[in-house]
From TrEMBL:
It comes from Thermoproteota archaeon. CDD domains: CBS_pair_AcuB_like (cd04584). Pfam families: CBS. SMART domains: CBS. SUPFAM superfamilies: CBS-domain pair (SSF54631). Residues 9-65, 80-140, 144-201, 229-285 form the CBS domain. Keywords: CBS domain. This is Inosine-5-monophosphate dehydrogenase. Coiled coil: none annotated. The keyword rRNA-binding does not apply. InterPro entries: CBS_dom, CBS_dom_sf, Diverse_CBS-Domain.
Amino acid sequence: MALRVSHVMTPQVVVISPKDTLARARNLMLHHDIGRLVVVDEELKPIGILTETDIAMKVWEESSGRVARTIDEILVEEVMSSSVITIGPRTYLKNAAKIMVRRKISGLPVVDSSGKLLGIITKTDLTKAYSLYYSGCFKVSEIMSSPVVTVNPAHTIYRVGRLMKEHGISRVVVVDGKVPIGVVTKTDLTFLTMTIQPRRLKFVKPIDREGRISRVVKIFRIPIVADVMTSNPLTVLEGEDAAKAAGVMIENGISGLPVVNVDGELTGIITKTDIVKAMSKLDSR
């Protein structure tokens, strides 16, 4: 039997109003452990999508301004993606994967013929389906992303943010030489300003003032990668079945795995996006 969207979609959708604040959106995401919310009108029809990436980018945008608004002052309608792409419940999974890849999105509200919201299908749903039904199709090395964008523990989180924006990625791998020792994700950055206590760094510069040595001392509060990274990340061997990697992601609630060789050296990264891309290339089942 060919799998359709209705077989794997999530029927319980967490929704939000465009007039709600980002603070409420953040609380809903944390409470339900999800990365996106469907924005609905008064008739519960989808009119937008709000993702943790949207929140992260807005937080960073506000933090760089002279007068930074807090997340309880910013409305969902200011940040949400308003051009909603929906899908029907009888669509084949391969076609749903193709839409996500082509549109560069991570979730599709599922609606009936009248536009009423029935559920949502996400990269997580497709990754779970891949782990269950598509073993033996690809090795990790065949679909992983390489080379990997990396940082070291002493880099600032501002560098991480720039790299994510520059490369259009949602995670970077922290390395010690060639060995992966941590991961930083957009989720980490999204809620950074609300949770982290940045380390204090002292900079001392001697200055000769008319034969007298003075010291100028500046205190910097700079959060670095070591403050926010998830240490000792799960990894997968490049020769493993991609379905096994997909299963590890689902079982552990993560969206990516550093890929290593037999010596434990980083050779790539496999993400839910890579799994969805692989699924989009398969014949319908």
